[in-house]
Write a structure and sequence with these properties.
One of its GO terms (molecular function) is protein-macromolecule adaptor activity. By secondary structure, the protein is of the alpha+beta class. Helix content is about 25%, strand content about 25%. The protein is built from 4 helices and 5 strands, in the order αβααββββα. Strand 4 and strand 5 form a beta hairpin. The longest helix has 17 residues.
């Protein structure tokens, strides 16, 4: 029986490798609420109020909690390869400030480069009580349930 030429087996390996890598394509996902640029140009400071902004851009992603009222429209594009960690490619934050009368005072656009890393506190609040092992948690209720009719 004649053996197969090595070129055929190499071609099979290359084809299988190509199909495998093709299945792991980068997944780019848009997220959030990115306002239409044409609608943004219609928002003129000193001329437009909250209702008009809501009609043009819709509900904001979030609002300021303290100080001057600001509406934030946040959008981003993320990418991920198969099981790898997600990476943020682009971010846009449109911040619309309102004065005390509810009229737009300023429109700002912030990008990924304007963001700041926030250090999170990794402390835990201690809880008082018993520290139960896994076995104690699993077997802790065995025998506690009896007659549910109320009679003892």
């Amino acid at each position: 029986m004649p053996s197969r030429p090595p070129v055929l087996s190499v071609a099979t390996v290359v084809l299988a490798l190509g199909l495998t890598l093709g299945a792991c394509a980068q997944d780019v996902v848009p997220r959030g609420n990115e306002p239409n640029p044409d609608m943004l140009t219609q928002i003129k400071p000193g001329e437009v109020g909250r209702r008009e902004v809501a009609a043009l851009l819709g509900t904001p992603s979030t609002r300021s909690a303290f100080g001057q009222e600001t509406w934030y429209y946040i959008s981003s594009k993320t990418a991920q390869w198969a099981f790898m960690e997600q990476e943020e490619l682009d971010r846009q934050v449109v911040a619309i400030d309102f004065d005390e009368k509810g009229v737009v005072s300023q429109v700002r656009t912030l990008g990924l480069e304007d963001g700041q890393q926030v250090g999170l506190v990794d402390r835990e609040t201690p809880t008082h009580g018993n520290e139960l092992s896994l076995i104690q948690q699993l077997l802790g209720n065995v025998g506690r349930f009896g007659d549910t009719s109320g009679e003892q």
